């Protein structure tokens, strides 16, 4: 990792190849955090505001009080460090990743990609279900080798120092990590949110390497001249998404246009950072307005801490700016992602596209609509997601064996 990177574990210069990594935040970073939490300058709010104006003052004070008085980061480090982690220099860029080997006959390599404001930690409940299915009453033949990279500028991956680290570049980094660094000639991929677009990009750009892709959100299809007319369900989805963007999309507009203006405050104030992140965990999860119905305080704060100790809130939200200025190429008329695709839709309305919308672009082989679980599906409903991944990739395993 770069020497300037705060809060890291093993320090190694870029270009050193693949090296083991253990999270070990310096005590001075934690001491500084405690002092900042003590000095939080609280704002006021109108009577009965609740969450209507944004993050609830009452809840945020409760969370920050717990953070200062009870949260044990060292215990969370132990949770994280139970997984085998590395830093790999890929195309000159340092990527942090978990690499857990499957326990079963011929485990299938699977790369899991998180989104924002998530992190690699989002997968910590899911990983054991995938690597050791027999331990949880499932079939050992469904085991995966699981690789969970941290997106560039997120967590313990390197922070980009030049413009252009957008989604297409990440797709290429992931392909190189899986095939060239780790030696998997063929592999599977799953992602949600930003991770879904990276996963779609892998299927689109590297069909010779990717056995199949599994998504919780699908890309927009070609809708230009010659495209079939939208169905009633597709028109309703476009209207719903426009409504969602008007009600929920301010964060995205800010992060796409002026991320650094926002980031100065979030990087300096732990309470401000918690406010920005926890509001999304409440709004986008299947929690019915009670964020702790889905996530414990420790889970919320561990996610927030990963951003805090690495000072990556600025570089993480900058990905929105980069993706606006360096967008993925739109689909052309007749273009399709040909590798098999599985889609699992959560209760998150903004991603609830109808099947015909997806089938314009994807080779959809499995389609599941869940009655529970939201944006952070691997953390909210790991068992459901694990079973979906097992079921979708069983035929791909058979095809892979047949080719060998």
Considering the chains and any ligands shown, give keywords for the structure.
single chain, 404 residues, alpha/beta, 9-stranded mixed β-sheet, 9 strands, disordered N terminus
Overview of this protein structure:
It is a single chain. The protein is of the alpha/beta class and 404 residues long. The chain has one domain (18-403): Alpha/Beta hydrolase fold, catalytic domain (Rossmann fold, 3-Layer(aba) Sandwich). The protein is 43% helix and 14% strand. The chain is built from 15 helices and 9 strands. The protein has a 9-stranded mixed β-sheet, sandwiched between helices. Helix 9 packs across helix 10 (270-284). The longest helix has 22 residues, at 382-403. It starts with 17 loop residues before the first strand and ends with a helix. The model is unreliable at 1-16 (pLDDT under 50).
| Proper CATH architecture | 3-Layer(aba) Sandwich
Strand content: 5-15%
Q: Mean pLDDT, as a whole number? A: 94
* Shape annotation: globular
Low-confidence stretches: 1-16
Largest sheet: 9 strands, mixed
In the CATH scheme, what's the topology name? Answer: Rossmann fold
Total domain modules: 1
Radius of gyration: 21 Å
């Amino acid at each position: 990792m770069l020497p300037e990177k705060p809060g890291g574990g093993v320090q190694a210069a870029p270009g050193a190849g693949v090296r083991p990594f253990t999270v070990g935040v310096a005590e001075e970073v934690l001491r500084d955090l405690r002092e900042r939490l003590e000095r939080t300058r609280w704002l006021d709010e109108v009577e009965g505001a609740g969450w209507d104006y944004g993050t609830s003052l009452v809840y945020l004070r409760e969370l920050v009080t717990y953070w200062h008085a009870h949260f044990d980061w060292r215990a969370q480090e132990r949770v994280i460090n139970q997984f085998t982690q590395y830093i790999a220099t890929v195309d000159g860029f340092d990527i942090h990743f978990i690499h857990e080997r499957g326990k079963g006959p011929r485990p299938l390599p699977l790369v899991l990609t998180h989104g924002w404001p998530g992190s690699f930690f989002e997968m910590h409940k899911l990983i054991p279900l995938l690597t050791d299915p027999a331990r949880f009453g499932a079939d050992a033949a469904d085991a995966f080798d699981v690789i969970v990279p941290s997106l560039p500028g997120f967590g313990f991956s390197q922070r980009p120092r030049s413009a252009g680290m957008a989604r297409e570049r990440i797709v290429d980094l992931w392909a190189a990590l899986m095939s060239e660094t780790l030696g998997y000639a063929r592999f599977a991929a799953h992602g949600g949110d930003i991770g879904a677009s990276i996963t779609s990009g892998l299927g689109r750009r590297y069909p010779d390497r990717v056995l199949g892709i599994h998504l919780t959100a699908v890309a927009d299809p070609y809708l230009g001249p010659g495209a079939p007319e939208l169905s009633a369900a597709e028109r309703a989805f476009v209207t719903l998404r426009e409504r969602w963007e008007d009600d929920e999309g301010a964060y995205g507009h800010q992060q796409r246009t002026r991320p650094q203006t926002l980031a100065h405050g979030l990087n300096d104030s732990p309470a401000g950072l918690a406010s920005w992140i926890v509001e999304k965990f409440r709004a986008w999860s299947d929690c019915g307005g009670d964020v702790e119905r889905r996530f414990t305080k420790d889970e919320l704060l561990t996610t927030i801490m990963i951003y805090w100790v690495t000072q990556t809130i600025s570089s993480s939200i900058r990905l929105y700016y980069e993706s606006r200025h360096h967008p993925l190429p739109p689909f052309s008329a007749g273009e399709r992602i040909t590798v098999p695709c599985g889609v699992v839709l959560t209760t998150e309305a903004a991603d609830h596209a109808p099947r015909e919308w997806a089938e314009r672009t994807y080779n959809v082989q499995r389609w599941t609509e869940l009655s529970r679980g939201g944006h952070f599906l691997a953390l909210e409903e790991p068992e459901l997601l694990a079973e979906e991944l097992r079921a979708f990739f069983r035929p791909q395993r058979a095809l892979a064996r047949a080719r060998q």
